[in-house]
Amino acid sequence: MSTDYKFQGWMGLDPKSVDGNMKWQSYEPKEWKETDVDIKITHCGICGSDLHMLRSGWGETDYPCVVGHEIVGTAVRVGSKAEGGIKVGDRVGVGAQSSSCLKPDCAECSDGHENHCVNGTNTYGDKYKDGSGKSYGGYADYSRVPSHFVFKIPDKISSAEVAPMLCGGITVFSPLKRNGAGPGTKVGIVGIGGLGHFGLLYAKALGCKEIVAISRTSAKKEDAMKMGATKFIATDEDKDWATHNAMSLDLIVCTVSSPKMPLMDYFELLKTFGQFIQVGAPEDSLPGFNCFALIGKGIKMGGSAIGSPAEIREMLDITVKKDVKPWIQERPMKDANQTVVDMVDGKARYRYVLVNEAHA
Question: How far is Cα 353 from Cα 37, in angstroms, rounded to an integer?
């Protein structure tokens, strides 16, 4: 069955694409399956992952590549075997994962941890394991995605606001929720950027007793306090910040992607049996640390990758109930190149969202 619409988008052709050199081109989407949904894209958030992929920062990217995995739009074609009760005309979204094996003998998929399936497929720059083609992202007019990873968007969340939640939001919501953030807990969020701002918003929504924003300078202190922080630590402005705040936090979620982060100092902030969860993904290795920093207090260091479909739905439900509002800046899809350059330059406050004006 042919369609009366074309798949075209901003194509990264080489590592220089991140310098504002993406090209608008047509491409061939994955082969249609009756479990798929075609989406007419109205909005797509810009994520730090997009920059890493455009410049081959996490290894060589499979060019050509259309990035963008915070996709929102209208379902225009729905397969006869699609999941989730999705109908043509529904407002839907897609996050950073577009497929997993979903086999009954896969422990991860069977237990609702599809985001950890070893045979998963990323929403862009990846290949579907069933041989149906390559995945392309949301800096585009249309997207074709298996329905298991397509979500109905609640009426009370705007398309522009929900887009960055589908990767940025869930990347911090999942480790917060899974590691006990809530009433009575004291949580630290390292890095007050796109991910970190979601960390503050969702820590507040989950009812944490104390929410500590941790950044190098106090430049974002006023914003952080408005987002829900109850305390702010500027590490460049107090040489003894770790000592002054030692043994104060139950959980730290670290969103920064720097290989130079002061891990030993962060560990000092944790209480006995505290947890440090890394979600930022540096292009280089993490700094070394003395294992007695973990052993002495029995603290745990771990990581977290996006979230499962069930967790994304839970996040959207809490977003509605607690009226979570991300801090976003909308830009026209036609200005994607300049917006990527601005993102590289650290100008986002705090997430850019591309608006496909032809469809919005």
Answer: 22
Sheet holding 270-278, edge to edge: 231-234, 210-215, 186-190, 249-254, 270-278, 300-303
Task: Let me know: does 127 contact 121? Beta carbons within 8 Å.
Answer: yes
pLDDT tens per residue across span 286-323? 888 999 999 999 999 999 999 999 999 999 999 999 99
How does pLDDT run across 235-252, given as a tens digit for each residue? 999 999 999 999 999 999
DSSP string, 160-224: HHHGGGGTHHHHHHHHHHHTT-STT-EEEEE--SHHHHHHHHHHHHTT-SEEEEEESSGGGHHHH
pLDDT digits (tens, 9 = 90+) for 19-72: 999 999 999 999 999 999 999 999 999 999 999 999 999 999 999 999 999 999
Is 137:298 a contact under the CB 8 Å cutoff? no
Tell me whether residue 155 is exposed, middle or buried, using C-beta atoms within 10 angstroms of its C-beta: 0 to 12, 13 to 18, 19 or more: exposed
Contact 259, 288 (CB under 8 A): no
Say whether 36 sits in a helix, a strand or coil: strand
d(CA 283, CA 194): 18
Count CA atoms closer than 13 A to 298's CA, side-chain side.
4
Rounded to whole angstroms, the Cα distance separating 12 from 141 reads: 15
* Strand, helix or coil for residue 121: strand
Query: Given this model, what pLDDT does residue 1 score?
Result: 56
Condensed to tens digits (0 to 9), the pLDDT of residues 315-338 reads 999 999 999 999 999 999 999 999
Q: Evaluate whether 322 touches 346 at the Cβ level (below 8 Å).
A: no
